[in-house]
Amino acid sequence: MAAPHLTLVARKSAEEFERLLADQTTLQQSLFASRGVIMPTIVYRQSTDVDDDDVELRLDDRVIGSYVHWMIDDDDLHGLVFSDLEMNAGALVVPSLIEHYLQGLAESFPDLARSAREAFTLATLTEQLAKRVEAGASIRDFRLVLEELLQAVA
Fold this sequence. Notes:
It is built from 7 helices and 4 strands; from the N terminus they run E-H-H-E-E-E-H-H-H-H-H. The protein is α+β, with helices and mostly antiparallel strands. The chain folds into 2 domains: 6-92, FHIPEP family, domain 1 (Glutaredoxin); 95-153, no CATH class. A hairpin with a 2-residue loop joins strand 3 and strand 4. Helix 2 (24-35) packs parallel to helix 3 (74-87).
């Protein structure tokens, strides 16, 4: 599975969304704090596929948020985008993310990372972790989450 792509799609120019696009760090930090998931960079695409005042947030080709631009200010848009990202955070859990986490874990806990690799395929581990995130849990404490998963299969 390829890394997910986030796109903000609107008919208006990118300047209308400059603050949101420039300050993605806040969204990233909030999503990582709540779910333990790293968010891909949101890119902007101007399109006539949406109505004049509509803005869509797309995860790959799926619309995960739709907003009427003139009805919301920048702070509202930030909050709405975060809410939609959080509700769809499980779709951001992909093999490349889990591999990244396993490599980081191996630096401090090599035995735990090795045990996880022996007990689960990358696909199975990704699926299990995505389900946890979809259920509203966090995988931020990756070490603890892996220990729980390993205990469950022991």
